[in-house]
Structures are given as C-alpha cells and as structure tokens.
Automatic annotation (TrEMBL):
Gene3D superfamilies, per database record: At5g01610-like
Official protein name in the record: DUF538 domain-containing protein
Cellular component GO terms, alphabetical: cytosol; nucleus; plasma membrane
Pfam families, per the entry: DUF538
Length: 168
C-alpha cells in the first residue's frame, strides 16, 4: 500500500508534463516577427521584445504583447512609444485600426493608425497625415530604450527629415 501514493503522484506528474506533440507545436508556431513577414511586412516595424501574440486568422485581428511599454528615439527625428499591448487587423500589405503605437512629431504625440506596404515603400498614417519610408529602413527591429543607438547596434536607420509635417 505504501507504493500507491507514489504511483498516484507519478501519474499526476505525467499528466502535468506537456506532451511531445504540444512541445513540437509550440516550437513550430511562428514568432510575431515571422508572422509579419508572412503578410509581406518587414520585421523592423515591430521592436524587439514581443513576448506573445495572438491572431484570429479568420478576421486578421491581432494582439502583440510586451512585458512593459516600449519607447525609443530614432536618429534625427522621431520618438516612438509602444504600449505593453498593441492591436489591430493584419492582411497582406496592410495593418489597420492599430492601437497602442504613438509617434512624437514636433511636440505632439500622434497615434499610428495604419501601415501600408506599397512595393519598396512603407506608409505610416496618423489619420490626418502620413509619411512614406523606404522598406530598407525596417529590415531589423529597433530595441526598446535605445532604438538603433544601442551599443551592439551598428544601424544608422531613419536618418531623415520629418515627413509627417506635410498633409495629404
């Protein structure tokens, strides 16, 4: 009879272990960055540090999660802020109804509400105006806190004037 508690504990332990299929499925699930690429977006529109995401493939509704909010400056012009949760809808070459991403232009914080890829250009819309950038500027992800100015980053991306100043 003394072996029964050990047997019960062993069985309970086995039921709490993830199955090999679950581990394989988890390992095979795409990262938020590879998911972006599957919709024809470069990884650099999302900073490093996404800890989880969810996607409803039938509607394109997504959420991406960071441990905390994420802010950084880009060389020469902008300051960006990502809330700990960002959301929107994703489809081929288009992110719409975005929430949780802001850009500081001059002295105003504006919500980035849409991102569209047109060939080798990325268009970022804040509603009343938009700005185009070359796709090459988004080939790598910026880092929270330091953007591309981190000690280990050699990138000099986003050096440009402020195209968000003009309206369409």
């Amino acid at each position: 009879m003394s072996g029964v508690p050990i047997l019960i504990a062993s069985v309970l332990f086995l039921f709490h272990l993830p199955s090999p299929l679950a581990v394989a499925a988890e390992a095979d699930s795409p990262t938020a960055y590879s998911l972006l690429q599957s919709y024809n977006f470069p990884v650099g529109i999302l900073p490093k540090g996404v800890v989880a995401y969810d996607l409803d493939t039938s509607t394109g509704k997504f959420h991406a999660y960071f441990n905390d909010s994420c802010s950084f400056s880009l060389v020469g012009s902008y300051k960006l802020n990502y809330k700990s949760t960002i959301s929107g809808y994703i489809s081929e070459n288009k992110l719409t109804q975005l929430s949780g991403v802001k850009v500081k232009v001059l002295f105003l914080w504006l919500n980035i509400v849409e991102v569209t890829r047109n060939g080798d250009k990325m268009e970022f819309s804040v509603g009343i105006t938009s700005a185009d950038f070359a796709i090459q500027e988004f080939l790598e992800s910026p880092q929270c806190g330091c953007g591309f100015e981190c000690k280990d980053s050699k990138s000099e991306m986003f050096e440009r004037n402020s195209p968000f100043v003009s309206s369409y």
